[in-house]
Amino acid sequence: MVIGAGLAGAAMAQCLTTRGWRVDLFDAASGPAQAASALPVGMLSPHVTRAPTPLSELSALGVAHTRAELQRLLTPGRGWQACEVDNWGHDPGRWPAALVRPSALVQAWLAEAQATGHLTCHWNSHVHALQARNGVWCLQDASQHTLGEAPAVVLAAALGSAALLQALSGPSDWRPWPLHPVKGQMSLGAQQGEPLAPRPQRNNGVFVPRYEDANMPAPWPQRLWSMGSTYDRGQANTEVTEDAHARNAKSLRLLLSAHEAGQAPALDDAPWQGWAGVRCASLDRLPIAGAVPDVAALLAQVNQLGAHRTRLDLSQVPRLPGVYALTALGSRGLTLAHWCAQQLALQMDNQTHPAPHDLWRCVDPARFVWKQSRRQEGRKPAPASVASTKL
After folding, report:
1. Mean pLDDT on 1-15
2. Rounded distance, CA 388 to CA 161, Å?
3. What are the residue boundaries of the structural domains of the chain, listed by start?
């Protein structure tokens, strides 16, 4: 069972079904890509740093991987288009990139999964609890009715995974899931006349001067410009606000005036539309992908080890059998969803995956609780504080 039908869930369903798994996909919405993956247009581009970091290395792998998926599954002009982006911030330069409508990629992955005959989708399914019963995992709604049963489950519902993960961890002074919401609002409008810049510009947000998509769903224009998005930590609502529009307008004017890319006041002649979504981010800004830790078993193991707890390796953390997570992709869903899903599918099949060992450790779901378990006695972490979101 896969919970969530956005970029992460759709990628997971595609990777598993093409490997022969039978997958039941559950989502609270009436169809796929209804939450953060409903973004009208997103940017696929590398995260460049002066010295390599886990995020920059993951990004390099993910960008190449997703670009191959776009070329394999979508026609240019119908869900994506190649471009370059001018970066003016911490990674100045001109970099190869792509503009992507995430829902097009979600739908393509699900179509490929359904073509195998191994995928069943369950819409309007609000998952309230996950319980082990007779060797299988059971999904339940708020009335404790069983939605589905399977020996394996992947939590891929972005912030909606947090409450389920916390419930699986049980009561503890540890904080195994430091996840938080980050609201983002994009400002956009119909693009008319000549674009205000020759290519996308990025500094405090990304300005897309023109994106054209023959299959763009209503209410978005087929040819549009966009600016965004904002980055509001701790906010979990999707209300489009004038304040966020104003911040996007200020960022756009500064970006264009500083680099002589065009005249932003021309945008005032047309009405602005807005889109807002909620990202799920982790404490270290890296995704969570892999087998979920058994926190209660780890606590018992640590108590038994005593002063030798610091010798415990991440690979030795006990795991809940058959429970996996792919979440906390933050603003890198387009870049990392399918690459992480492919690696996780290989792990679920007990096969060696090509991901560099150190990078896979960086996204291990057990990394936070493992670090806390190695602390000296008397230094207890703060109580858990996890956003509660209806799934």
Report:
1. 98
2. 9
3. 1-85+102-180+280-391
